[in-house]
Design a protein that fits this description.
The chain is built from three helices and seven strands; from the N terminus they run αβββαββββα.
């Protein structure tokens, strides 16, 4: 009987630890002038050339003020920016997990990378986030 109570407590403790770990991370930033590659886990999407088809999204066509407005409108907090780069964080409501979204100017497009800092699967959250940003443009 005690085991029935112990298992959910262990799962909840694990979720709390992962949430705290996600709050300590930071965006990956640019790697050789491009957005960092996505991890092998199914918890992110990106538009850079070479991204696996299952994780691929289209880049965004907008100007920087429009991009910044779309990010804040969809609940993101801008954490860093240069002329050709923008990063933001999104925090889940319930467990306070933090995900990073990064953008790199590529001509008249913005390449995008949206990925969870911790965990294995994001249950489609990053793909939905990029779609929400696109809709907000």
């Amino acid at each position: 009987m005690r085991l029935l109570f112990l298992i959910p407590a262990i799962i909840m403790a694990g979720m709390i630890i992962l949430s705290l770990l996600s709050q300590r991370g930071a965006p990956r930033g640019l790697v050789d002038g491009r957005l960092a590659p996505l991890p092998d886990k199914p918890n992110g999407v990106g538009s850079e050339a070479g991204t696996d088809d299952g994780k691929r999204v289209d880049p965004l066509r907008t100007d920087k003020p429009g991009l910044k407005a779309a990010v804040t409108k969809t609940g993101g907090t801008i954490t860093s920016e240069t002329d050709d780069y923008l990063s933001a964080t999104y925090t889940s409501r319930l467990m306070r997990f933090v995900d990073d979204v990064e953008f790199r100017r590529d001509g008249d497009l913005w390449q995008v990378r949206s990925a969870s800092r911790v965990g294995h699967s994001d249950m489609g959250a990053n793909r939905k986030r990029v779609a929400a940003i696109r809709d907000a443009l």
